Structures are given as structure tokens and as C-alpha cells.
Automatic annotation (TrEMBL):
<dbReference type="InterPro" id="IPR002470">
    <property type="entry name" value="Peptidase_S9A"/>
</dbReference>
<feature type="signal peptide">
    <location>
        <begin position="1"/>
        <end position="24"/>
    </location>
</feature>
<comment type="similarity">
    <text>Belongs to the peptidase S9A family.</text>
</comment>
<feature type="compositionally biased region" description="Polar residues">
    <location>
        <begin position="19"/>
        <end position="43"/>
    </location>
</feature>
<dbReference type="InterPro" id="IPR023302">
    <property type="entry name" value="Pept_S9A_N"/>
</dbReference>
<keyword id="KW-0720">Serine protease</keyword>
<feature type="domain" description="Peptidase S9 prolyl oligopeptidase catalytic">
    <location>
        <begin position="505"/>
        <end position="719"/>
    </location>
</feature>
<dbReference type="InterPro" id="IPR001375">
    <property type="entry name" value="Peptidase_S9_cat"/>
</dbReference>
<dbReference type="InterPro" id="IPR002471">
    <property type="entry name" value="Pept_S9_AS"/>
</dbReference>
<feature type="region of interest" description="Disordered">
    <location>
        <begin position="19"/>
        <end position="52"/>
    </location>
</feature>
<keyword id="KW-0732">Signal</keyword>
<protein>
    <recommendedName>
        <fullName>prolyl oligopeptidase</fullName>
        <ecNumber>3.4.21.26</ecNumber>
    </recommendedName>
</protein>
<dbReference type="InterPro" id="IPR029058">
    <property type="entry name" value="AB_hydrolase_fold"/>
</dbReference>
<feature type="domain" description="Peptidase S9A N-terminal">
    <location>
        <begin position="48"/>
        <end position="446"/>
    </location>
</feature>
<dbReference type="Pfam" id="PF00326">
    <property type="entry name" value="Peptidase_S9"/>
</dbReference>
<keyword id="KW-0645">Protease</keyword>
<keyword id="KW-0378">Hydrolase</keyword>
Length: 725
């Protein structure tokens, strides 16, 4: 039997309270190895001194110290110096890991394969996205008929260092014009450029201060887009809370763009978006103050005097316009349907009392798309895909035969398309694209990536385990077929658990390399997500948030109990809300795992809502000001406020970026400072801060590979591995 590619050279007793520490000691004794010099250096890291001040906030009569508040100032020289000192320490530490370069080489080799997006028609051209392997960004190509493809947009040329990315592309109805958005340094702030699609010559000046925005054309005359007023303070951390929808007519000044929605106190919302239906008839406007629930309005653009008509005037449901069928609107909604339904209503009387089910709610969560004159209904069955095809009248035609068990996406296109494309993937299958004949239901392989990763050598199994309160939780565990369940396997446990986000199976080069090295990758579908509809989400928000942490803890315990791994070989990983998950679990159960990897995490639960659009997360979290009960609950699990003096925390590498204006890096900065000042063990407490990068979207391939190499190397090294075969 082929052995895993990791070689255990030395493994000291990693945690006195770990149930697997005896096994680690036994392995070290059998190898006759002693603790290495680099591991001894780990035990005496000289952390940069972080100044403490006397900042104190008072919540309902309780004083809460915030000694590292000054790190919230992302424009100060002192913060910049702190970042530089922390990075110097972290990269010096990572530089001691002998196999770090090998891991990076393996990642680069594994990443180096062609990737191709599904084609789409605009005007006289067929467009598609392509990456030849290690390009920092996908390139947009186009071709006419059987002619040679040509480059339409190459984001790799947007900036010398690859940190400016393409963040959106939209064509006018006849395909003669295009508008595209760029993001610099990973920021959520965008700049929109409008060009002649044939000549690629610019039209007018770029539009600035655009954020959380789509690009939707009104015929060939102009575009709808959303923006905030430019902040007076830091663009990366200043609160932004009044979003506005604008209309920009071509060849006019942005300063003259009229506000379509959001300009008054009555229409003030944190998130506003607008989209024109494909026939140009209706403008649909969504307005919301949190990440769950929205109002919906429509405007008949072909009316003599277009007026705003309210479809849903409250934020108690998620309701969006799929398309229109003449005078009728087709709406996907969870109003009175926690798992979603598709309804039909006349645009002249769109009140919910007049809605008629087109596709009724079922036991599985529904999401809809449309193309080629049909509706495609995608259902989640224990987090994997099932897809059905319907007529525009809601008649079920067939269930689409998918190539396996995993995640299928796409199933959209123009109404006159003769083919529909969809993608398929899972944790051990690189994405493939299929073309579907909507008349016959036959699907053919359009593109399959040629990678060195052979899915036949791996297994991806779904198990169910029981959480603390008895709730049954699904988890998918992926690994090499030759792996032995003897409790010794390095394991990455990844979670999210929030915002109605569903973790469905998808392929990752980083995870493929991890498994190729002999590791296990496990993903539980914990509460707070959307895998089982609104009820699953609600069970993990506000004063039920502890369910999320308990579900994750139970997943870790299951993996140990079933001999997949041990506490000494377990790493916890998650990003954004998942970074909160890791931070909360590592502070509640520091004995649970050897390594903790909170990425771009929400770690200060008392102040998260004071930065950028963070107040919009209050639906999931609640805020410290809303009630004493909510303050006490947040304070009770906030990772920043629950780091205790003298505790032996897991080996931790926090990752963040200086341009993250979604979850500002101050969360990570302050958490790192707390860990370094209070940790009572010998495990490293480090922070890795990417420069000129953001929350993750648009990060160039080179930076992704560098970060992944550091994360995997740090993880394995702190599990006791010192070299690779």
C-alpha cells in the first residue's frame, strides 16, 4: 500500500490535555527523535511589543477594556509599523520550515492546468473566460463563428503586480457596448469603465465610489449602478450605511447621475440594487438593511410615466425577481415558504395576496434560474444538488441527469439560446462544464480540466453525527483511498455556519494538495447555514449562535472518536464568519485541536457593526447596544474578549489583509495582540498580513499560492512534521 507523502520525523508531546498526546509521544519514542532546534525556537518567540492604552467602553453599566483600540486606525504610522513587525516575525518563522518551498512547488504544479468557463453570446461574438494555468486572473476572450479567439479583456494587464482584478462585466442588450468593474487591492470599492465592445475604446469617464453593485443596462442608453457617498475618513474602515441606486446616461458626467432610489431618509437602506429584465420592460429594485430580508419594488420602464410599485414592503423575507413573462413577474421567495418557492403575479397588482405558486415549496431548499425559455429548479439534498427542468408555466418536464454526487451550477442563459451550460464539481472532482439540450434533456461534456489529480485515488464520503443538543449534522470527509483510520492523519476541519450560506461540495487545488500529502479534508454543514432552509439558518443566529460552535466542536470530536485523526493532528479553519467560528471554538475549547487558522475573521463582536457595512450583519449577530441580554451573549463568546491569561492555545496563524474593507483587519490585529500577550503555552501565536489585498475576492493566483503554502506548511510543521517524502 502506498504510504502518505508526509514523514513524521519528530513529534513531541503537543498538549498535556490532548487525548492523543500519548500516541504522539509513542511515535516520537519509536523514531528515536528529539525535539528539533526549530521547535525549540518556537517555544521562545519574541513577539513585537504591542502598546496597551486605557480605552474602556461601558455597556449597560459594565466596563469593557479595549487596550488595542489604536490598531483600528488603518492610516496611522504606528499601525503600519506594527504590521511590518508582525509580518517580519511571521515570515521569519515560516522561513524555518524546510519543506515550505516544496509545498509551494506542489501547489504551483497542481494549479498549472487550463481552466475554461462556459461560453456566452453577446452580439456577433461568443465570449468565454480562460486561464492557462498560473495566470493571476482569468482572461476574457471572444470569437466570431469558427474564427480565431482574440483577447477582449485581460485583467492581468490592469496592474503590474496583479492586484487589480476584474469584478464584473455586463453587455448592452445588442452586445455593442460593455461595462466592466475593477477592484484595486482586493477592496470592495469598484471603478466602472464603459467601452465600445467592437473597438474597446472608452466611452466617457470611469464611474467611481461604486460598491456592492451590479451593472444593468437600460437599452443602449446607460446603466444602473449602486454606490455610497465617499467616506470622510478611511475608505477601508469608515461606516457606510446609505446605499443609493443611480442611473448613468452615456457620455454624461457622473456628478449629474440622478438617484433612482435611496436618496431620502424614507428610502435609506444599507444595501440597494437594481436590475432591468431582459426584455427591457421592468426595473427591479431591492432594498435591505441587513444580510437577510429585503424589500422589492418594480418600475415599468415602458410606461408613459414610470412609477415605483411596491411588491414587498417589508424585510421579513428574501424575495427577488427571476424574470418577467409579459405583464407577469416571476419571484423567488421564502415568504411563507422557508425552503423557497417560485410565484407568479401580475405587475399591476403585485401584493403577496395575489401570488400564485408556479413551483411550490418542497422539503429541500430551492433556487431557480432560467434560460432557453425554461426554468431550472436546483434543490439541495443534504448539501448536494438535484436539478429539475420546468416550463415557464410551472410544468415539470424532467429531472436533469447529473454526472455524479456533488454541486451543479449554471443552468442559465438567454431565452433564445439553443443550449444551456452547467458546471459540476465535488471535493475530489475538478470542475467540468456540460452543454444541455433543453429540448431533449441530453447533456454532453463541453470541457473537462486536465489535471494531475486523479479522483479515482480518493474517496469523498458523507456521514452524519450528533451535536450537543441532539441535532443530526451532515459532514463530508474526503481523503486518499489508501489512508488508514488509525487516528494519526493530519486533518483540516473547515466550517462557516452563518448568513444562510450553504457549503456545497467544490474542488480546491489547495485541498487536493492537502489530500495528496496524506491529509483529510472535512466539512460539516453546521447550523447558521442554508443547507436546510430558513429554519437551519435561524437555529444559528443571535442568541442561538452557540449552536454553531457546538456543531463544529462535535464534528471535531466525531473525527477523533472515529479514528480519522487525533487532537494533535487536527486543524480548525474558516474565513470571515468562519474566522469567527474558529476564534470562538479555539477560545472555548483550546484542547480541541493542535492548529487554529482563523482567516479574515469577525473577532470583535462588540464593535464589528461600527466598520464599513458591518451593521448589516446584525440580523445574524445582534449588536452590543440593542439590549443587555444581547451584549452579555456577544461578550460571552466574542473571541477577542475571551482570550484568557495563561491558557495553552493551539498553534495559531491568523490571516488577514490590509485592504480588507469587508471585515476590517483590526479584528485580526487586536485578536493577535491579545493572544500574544496572554498565551501561556509554547505554541506560536502569529498573524500573516497580506499587503495590497482584501477579503479574498480578486486575489491574484500568485498570492493565493503563497498564502496556501504558508498555511499548509505552518499546519503540518506544528503537527510535528519536519520534512516531506
Amino acid at each position: 500500500m502506498k504510504k502518505p507523502l508526509l514523514t513524521l520525523i519528530a513529534a513531541a508531546v503537543l498538549s498535556a490535555c490532548s487525548p492523543a498526546s500519548d500516541n504522539a509521544s509513542e511515535n516520537a519514542t519509536e523514531s528515536g527523535a528529539e525535539t528539533s532546534a526549530t521547535q525549540q525556537q518556537d517555544q521562545a518567540l519574541d513577539y513585537p511589543q504591542t502598546r496597551r492604552d486605557d480605552t474602556v467602553d461601558t455597556y449597560f453599566g459594565q466596563d469593557v477594556a479595549d487596550p488595542f483600540r489604536w490598531l483600528e486606525d488603518d492610516r496611522s504610522d504606528e499601525t503600519a509599523a506594527w504590521v511590518e513587525a508582525q509580518n517580519e516575525l511571521t515570515f521569519d518563522y515560516l522561513g524555518q520550515i524546510d519543506f515550505r518551498d516544496q509545498v509551494r512547488e506542489r501547489l504551483a504544479d497542481a494549479w498549472n492546468y487550463e481552466r475554461l468557463g462556459a461560453p456566452f453570446e453577446e452580439g456577433d461574438y461568443t465570449y468565454f473566460y480562460r486561464n492557462d494555468g498560473l495566470q493571476n486572473h482569468f482572461v476574457v476572450y471572444r470569437q466570431q463563428g469558427d474564427g480565431e479567439p482574440e483577447v477582449f479583456l485581460d485583467p492581468n494587464e490592469f496592474s503590474e503586480d496583479g492586484t487589480t482584478s476584474l469584478a464584473g462585466l455586463s453587455f448592452s442588450p445588442d452586445g455593442s457596448l460593455a461595462a466592466y468593474a475593477t477592484s484595486a487591492g482586493g477592496s470592495d470599492w469598484r471603478t466602472i469603465y464603459i467601452i465600445d465592445a467592437e473597438t474597446k475604446e472608452p466611452i466617457g469617464e470611469p464611474l467611481v465610489d461604486v460598491k456592492f453593485s451590479g451593472i444593468s443596462w437600460r437599452e443602449n442608453d446607460g446603466i444602473y449602478y449602486s454606490k455610497y457617498d465617499s467616506p470622510d475618513g478611511s475608505r477601508l474602515s469608515q461606516l457606510t450605511d446609505q446605499h443609493k441606486l443611480y442611473y448613468h446616461e452615456l457620455n454624461t458626467s457622473q456628478a449629474d447621475d440622478p438617484v433612482i432610489f435611496g436618496g431620502s431618509d424614507e428610502q435609506k437602506h444599507r444595501y440597494v440594487g437594481g436590475r432591468v429584465t431582459d426584455d427591457g420592460r421592468f426595473l427591479a429594485i431591492t432594498a435591505a438593511n441587513t444580510t437577510s430580508g429585503n424589500k422589492l419594488f418594480v418600475m415599468d420602464l415602458q410606461a408613459d410615466e414610470p412609477e415605483l410599485v411596491t411588491v414587498v414592503g417589508h424585510e421579513d423575507s428574501n424575495t427577488g425577481l427571476l424574470t418577467n413573462d409579459g405583464d407577469y413577474l416571476l419571484l423567488q421567495t421564502n415568504l411563507d415558504a422557508p425552503n423557497n418557492r417560485l410565484v407568479r403575479v401580475n405587475a399591476s397588482e403585485p401584493d403577496s395576496a395575489n401570488w400564485q405558486d408556479l413551483i411550490a415549496e418542497e422539503d429541500e431548499v430551492l433556487s431557480v434560474s432560467r434560460g432557453a425559455g425554461y426554468i431550472f429548479a436546483s434543490y439541495m439534498v443534504d448539501a448536494v444538488s438535484k436539478v429539475k427542468q420546468f416550463s415557464m408555466d410551472g410544468e415539470e418536464i424532467r429531472e436533469i441527469d447529473l454526472p455524479g454526487v456533488g454541486s451543479a451550477g449554471g443552468f442559465s442563459g438567454k431565452d433564445d439560446a439553443d443550449k444551456i451550460y452547467f458546471s459540476f464539481t465535488n471535493y475530489i472532482t475538478p470542475p467540468s462544464t456540460f452543454s444541455l439540450d433543453p429540448e431533449s434533456g441530453d447533456a454532453e461534456l463541453y470541457f473537462a480540466a486536465e489535471t494531475t489529480f486523479d479522483p479515482e485515488n480518493y474517496v469523498s464520503e458523507q456521514v452524519f453525527y450528533t451535536s450537543k443538543d441532539g441535532t443530526r449534522i451532515p459532514m463530508i470527509i474526503s481523503y486518499r483511498k489508501d489512508l488508514q483510520r488509525d487516528g494519526s492523519n493530519p486533518t483540516m476541519l473547515y466550517g462557516y455556519g452563518g448568513f444562510n450560506v450553504s457549503l456545497t461540495p467544490s474542488f480546491s487545488v489547495t485541498n487536493a494538495v492537502w489530500m495528496d500529502l496524506g491529509g483529510i479534508y472535512a466539512v460539516p454543514n453546521i447550523r447558521g447555514g442554508g443547507e436546510y432552509g430558513q429554519a437551519w439558518h435561524q437555529a444559528g443566529i443571535r442568541t442561538s449562535k452557540q449552536n454553531v460552535f457546538d456543531d463544529f466542536i462535535a464534528a471535531a470530536e466525531y473525527l477523533v472518536e472515529e479514528d480519522y485523526t487525533s487532537a494533535d493532528k487536527l486543524a480548525l479553519r474558516g474565513g470571515s464568519n468562519g474566522g469567527l467560528l474558529v476564534g470562538a471554538v479555539m477560545t472555548q475549547r483550546p484542547d480541541l485541536a493542535k492548529v487554529a487558522l482563523p482567516a479574515v475573521g469577525v473577532l470583535d463582536m462588540l464593535r464589528y457593526h461600527t466598520f464599513t457595512a458591518g451593521a448589516g450583519w446584525a440580523y445574524d449577530y445582534g449588536t452590543a447596544e440593542q439590549s443587555e441580554e444581547m451584549f452579555q451573549y456577544l461578550h460571552g463568546y466574542s473571541p477577542l474578549h475571551n482570550v484568557e491569561e495563561g491558557v495553552n492555545y493551539p498553534a495559531t496563524m491568523i490571516t488577514t489583509a490590509d485592504h480588507d474593507d469587508r471585515v476590517v483587519p483590526a479584528h485580526s490585529f487586536k485578536f493577535a495582540a491579545e493572544l500574544q500577550s496572554k498565551d501561556g503555552g509554547e505554541n506560536p501565536q502569529l498573524i500573516r498580513i497580506d499587503v495590497n489585498a482584501g477579503h479574498g475576492a480578486g486575489m491574484p493566483t500568485s498570492m493565493i499560492i503563497d498564502q496556501a503554502a504558508d498555511v499548509l506548511s505552518f499546519t503540518l510543521y506544528n503537527m510535528g512534521y519536519e520534512k516531506l517524502d
